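ok here's oligo-1,6-glucosidase:
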Amino acid sequence: MSEWWKEAVVYQIYPRSFYDSNGDGFGDLQGIIQKLDYIKNLGADVIWLCPVFDSPQDDNGYDISDYRNMYEKFGTNEDMFQLIDEVHRRGMKIIMDLVVNHTSDEHIWFVESSKSKDNPYRDYYFWRDPAPDGSEPNNWGSIFSGSAWTFNEKTGQYYLHYFSKKQPDLNWENEAVRREVYDVMRFWMDKGIDGWRMDVIGSISKHVDFPSYETKDSRRYIVGQYHSNGPRLHEFIQEMNREVLSRYDCMTVGEANGSDIEEAKKYTDASRRELNMIFTFEHMDIDTDQHSPNGKWQLKPFDPIALKKTLTRWQTALMNAGWNSLYFENHDQPRVISRWGNDRHLRKQCAKAFATVLHGMKGTPFIYQGEEIGMVNSDFPIEMYDDLEIKNAYRDLVIENKTMSEADFLKAAATKGRDHARTPMQWNAGKHAGFTAGEPWLAVNPRYKEINVKESLNDQDSVFYYYQKLIQLRKQYKIIVYGDYQLLLKENPQIFAYIRTYQGETLLVVVNLSEETAVFDAPAELLGEQWNVLLSNYSRQESDMKSICLQPYEAVMCISSSKETIS
Ligand code: NOJ
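and the structure:
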């Protein structure tokens, strides 16, 4: 069934790093308004705004202290209402970040909850007695290192937090909590927003008997059956859908940590009335050694075959039931070309190659600010990192537990540290890349003189115009939105190639994901086809794709010319 959110392309904004309109070094809502024409020019239809609500900013706004008001450095509610209007005026839509697995510890609910055991808000969070030896109630770990429990002296109990101790987990078992959340959602949807990205939604239902993970060692566990997909997860989401989502024409994408394909189908099969799509993590974890106690920081080399296999499993499984989101970057996942590609002499080709792989697939593509100009990871000494995840992991793994050498950790942080996605947007070659007239909250990437929006807009061959073209093609060819997917050359270690088929047409996507040339030999079933090249990052024009030698990071997208194209 056709739906606007299936045909849309989303542009994600990390507001504190997007554009600073008032010189305080911190991006803001007025800054976003000033740059809306840029996003419109790119061709995106929907903007996803990372959290802008009031917050002590322990986790950059993913710790909300007031769901109905803006954090003052971002602006006022009037600014937010103006942003919604300005987005709509340009024919675009806007979705916000719903962070309701946890609040800030400075939210009034938690302030009240920690006052006494009989406070009316006590049950808004998870409080448990210490174990008989006084230690934490179980061995669950926090995703930001250390225990998932913090002791509260005043009331003699521990509270649960999957993230930092300033992000206590809400108790969704409590109906009053769920009602509060639905009220907040209605509040913003009545103000005109068009949907939600739902933060760690896969964790809202807990195993309330809080069983410890079985371990052979003393380590705490952060990934496992108890941290996500709890027993009432889908019941809660269906209730949310009934109470709120079904009453609006909206788009929803859940961050579904710990979710496999079966789980994804439950979330996104339209007949179950839950969410439109989820963010899966499997393809982003292909460079992580999952069995290591060092978690995401234990790097594994990038393997294109692993990427093909993982993305293909998801493409195939959700082909006829549910829907995929498509992403390589976001505010937690740094620059893909630095992580898996070449961000130096092949930067532009490489950025276009990864873009082609993703934007040729079935699903709703998400572009993270700066991805469209080929931004790269930065260059930080450890003391310049700002993110609490990196700082805590460094303390835990390098200083306290010594499970990683400093050199290995720094290498991992240079590849996967979240701050690399959070450096200010590079608008021009001027001071601080034109992001701010003041001092930026996080250092601008030193390569801003070479990589910036102004340069991209002046160069007809830029990554920006390539993205613009990819988006235009998606609008023009229904096959890109709705066509079936089939992987080609499964075991080829360099080439990611696939076809899409729809109403008698075939779309062919061929991408060399390596720094060497690679030979593409078309499989037998495609030999009779003649092709129209729709897009290429090396000006390839031939219509015969039987056997071609692909240049490093060369990407080609073409459509069978035997049938009339549908536009
Ligand atoms: C996922 C968000 O994307 C991330 O930035 C945040 O730290 C955690 N959830 C906690 O809210």
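+1. The mean pLDDT is 95.
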